[in-house]
Amino acid sequence: MLSAAMSHSPAPQQATISGKAKSLTGRAVVPGDKSISHRALIMGALAVGETRISGLLMGEDVLRTAAAMAALGAKVEQAKVEEGKDAAGAPIWRVWGRGIGGLSEPEDVLDLGNSGTGARLIAGLLAAYPFTSFMTGDASLRRRPMDRVITPLSQTGAKFICRAGGRLPMAITGTPLPMPLSYDSPIASAQVKSAVLLAGLHAGGITTVTEPAASRDHTERMFRYFGVDVRTETTPNRYQVQVVGQPELTGKPISVPGDPSSAAFLVVAALLVPGSHLILPNIGVNPLRTGLFDVLQSMGADITYTNRRDQAGEPVADIEVRSSSLKGVTVPASRAPSMIDEYPILAVAAACAEGVTRMEGLAELKVKESDRLAAMAQGLEACGISAQAEGDTLTVRGGGPKGDAAVTIPVKLDHRIAMSFLVLGMVGARPIAIDDASAISTSFPDFIGLMNGLGANIQATDGRE
Ligand code: S3P
Question: Taking residues 328-350, what's their average pLDDT?
Answer without folding.
Answer: 98
